Amino acid sequence: MAAKTLLVLRHAKSSWKDPELVDHDRPLNKRGKREAPRMGRLLVQRKLRPELIVSSTAKRARRTADEVAGYCAYNGAVQLDRKLYLASPLAIIEVLRRVGGNAGRVLLVSHNPGLEELVTRLTGRAERLQTAALVQISLPIQNWKELRLSTEGRLINLWRPRELEDNNGA
Fold first, then answer.
1. Rounded to whole angstroms, how far apart are CA atoms 85 and 99?
2. How large is the greatest C-alpha to C-alpha distance in the chain, in angstroms?
3. Confidence grade of residue 165 (pLDDT, cut at 50, 70, 90)
4. Which among 10, 35, 109, 125 is placed 20 to 30 Å from 62, CA to CA?
């Protein structure tokens, strides 16, 4: 059976400089602007270029998705979905079921705690996802419409930007 690959990316580090901004509109800070391209380059190095990128509409998630898309030479448009903003694992699954289409590899850019909970539900492994952390999950499904919270996926890899910096990995 052909498996699908879900790449889960927590948005890069955001700025809290402007206390007047609502949470949804917070931009990336300097570190976030460095981390997002690094994760895009990592996708190329690991031959994990996504066929579809779907992102929360929050400014920090959109910018992360756009940067990653640019650095991994993604061909399509980043799909934005407001339902991914601070979404529960079930809401994330519903978005993936709706938009996944025929893509073999989907990159999802969103927020905690929903992403950590999603990774735990799909892989059985509780992992801490700092900003710009990227998780590769193999899912035993042929079509995204088959995806459920009960799907037993396999955590293939987890990359954290700070670990990459330490190892000169990206």
1. 16
2. 51
3. low
4. 125
SS3 at position 44: helix
**How far is Cα 75 from Cα 132, in angstroms, rounded to an integer?**
21
Tens-digit pLDDT profile for residues 84-140:
999 999 999 999 999 999 999 999 999 999 999 999 999 999 999 999 999 999 999
Q: Domain limits of the chain? A: 4-167
Could you give the CA distance from residue 92 to residue 17 in angstroms, rounded to a whole number? 29
What span, in angstroms and rounded, lies between the C-alpha atoms of 58 and 43? 22
Q: Could you give the CA distance from residue 56 to residue 110 in angstroms, rounded to a whole number?
A: 5
Phi, psi of 42 (to 5 degrees): -60, -40
pLDDT tens for 126-158 read 999 999 999 999 999 999 999 999 999 999 999
Q: How many CA atoms lie within 13 A of 120 on its CB side?
A: 13
- Condensed to tens digits (0 to 9), the pLDDT of residues 38-48 reads 999 999 999 99
Type of residue numbered 57: T
pTM above 0.90, yes or no: yes
